[in-house]
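Convert to structure. Protein one:
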Amino acid sequence: MPEEKIQAHLKRQLRLALGCCLLAWVVILLGAFVRLSDAGLGCPDWPGCYGQLTVPSAVDEVASANAEYPQRPLETAKAWKEMIHRYLAGTLGLLIAALAAYSWRNRQQIWQPKVLPNLLLVTVIFQALLGMWTVTLLVKPLIVTAHLFGGFATVSMLWILSLQLRRRLDRLGVGWDSPRPSGQRLWVAGGLVVLLLQIFLGGWTSTNYAAIGCTEFPTCNNQQWWPAMDFSEGFVLWRGLGIDYEYGVLEYPARTAIHMTHRIGAAITLVYLLLLGWRLLRSDQTAMMRTTAAVMLLLLAVQVGLGLTNVLAQLPLPVAVAHNGVAALLLMSLLTMVYLQSASGRAGASR
């Protein structure tokens, strides 16, 4: 195939992958908004809402919905939040299916990424199942946290796919400076692991309604550095079926234990990523790697500020939603570093 046609194919896929990546990030934000505004059960069934494709609005439809689900009468505002989230997630799924179809059609071409588009399709299907179980299992924390992780996995794979496509365009003479090997690979991998663990703790904190388990900083409650906490209850992953987890089921000491664990994890993550950024900026790196490290440090500062505001201002909704969005951007910055390191390794091996 002529180089011009290859370049056109890659650019088309890159635009689609970047568009999907942006939409996936918006879906993460909207999912956080739905969860934090207690609208996760705004529609008690799935995939519709009270048996319809849209939120019931006519008087007879509302009456029928309330009769069918007397334990959860219709709250229109919450239902629309949930359905808009589902509509956007469904649109993302269709676009990812288009990426997978494009990959399958060009599977014989050496320049075509094949693994990630198909893995994305499998992931988004599993995400749909997690979305269903979130409703049918009454916002069980483990399921909701897994659903959050699935969203982060989706945006991560879309971002890596975009980097792959951009790199292949680069090999055709468009763009980046050539990567060179670096001695920071273990530090970068460690940063990714630390951040992923902290994202899990953040999801567990949110889904167990423990974000305000401490209401002060740097102390926790009543100026205590180590308040009464119940770690054994706070980290029970599975409590059986049939329990309604909306607004949480844990006593305050268990929520405090979750919050303090997340706070300690945040301190560890802050120190580690600061050291990582400092090492990368001081070492002999490409301009892309140094820029990525600087962006990561900026996002880290914003994330710390958002976290402190969540505690001191009692979890304002816009700040809490932004906290999720910046976490995703931080993850993408670490993934960029990992990708650049792996690219430098391949480049070094080919010399």
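Protein two, convert as well:
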Amino acid sequence: MKVTEHFDKAQGKTLISFEILPPLKGGSVEAIFNALDPLMEFKPPFIDVTYHREEFLYKRRPSGYYEKIAIRKRPGTVGICASIMHRYGIDAVPHLICGGFTKEETENALIDLNFLNINNVLALRGDARPFEKKFSPEKEGHNYAIDLVGQISDMNTGNYLDPNIENGQKTDFCIGIAGYPEKHFESPNIETDLHFTKEKVKAGADYIVTQMFFDNEKFKSYIKHCRDFGIDVPIVPGLKPLTKRYQLSALPRRFFVNLPTEFVKELEKAKTDEALKEVGIEWCIHQSKELKAMGAPCLHYYTMGDSNTIKRIAEAVY
């Protein structure tokens, strides 16, 4: 079932969903199941699985020169999605990214997903590599998420990259995209950000999942801005609890989000790591209850490998 169909079927009830990371290369899918098993009591209709671009290592050769080697630390997104659907009987939403993939590789991945009856995808540009100052696309790849959305939409109408393919099978993907309540860090202002979001919707996007945020007023404002701008697709708030002291600076730096003054004051009062974690959990519970009362179609939790904490939050909210 499509993500948007789940929203329609819920008839106003706020659903719950989770996002997981594939295990590091060499890891077992059992680690995924061990993380998800405790969360299944909340009956999520779908699970998101992230995709990661290649990274580079430099290996010194006997000659003294360094060889540049590309590796993918977290492969397996498509296989994990198939395993989740088989084990739990729920839908899986693989992330597709521009970075590190050619258009041909993207098309082949979409064909595999279609064969597996996976008909939901989240289309993202992806991040720049750690050593790059700005995003650099793969040669023959997409530069922007809107181009990726366009390719998926083309396949939904039976149009493939090879112009010689006639009467190609029409796929039926439901396409999600990212939204930024505090604007994308590369956008000069919220209006520009909303313009490009609307263009992605016009290109075929069916719903929006937001970047994490810690101030519900930012989300409320984002919803209003989107509706005023003519963006009428469902908007799902993305949530993550702050549970470690280093995240006070790391999350704003990494994800370009602000922490409310009241929240920071409470975190700074915490004298121990455990006390700080409790403050972060309680804040996320408060956010979740308020967003649920607002009628959000779904609360989407970024688990980041910490399913026990997410389970505590979900128990308090659902």
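The CA atoms of residues 282 and 313 lie 8 Å apart. The radius of gyration is 20 Å.
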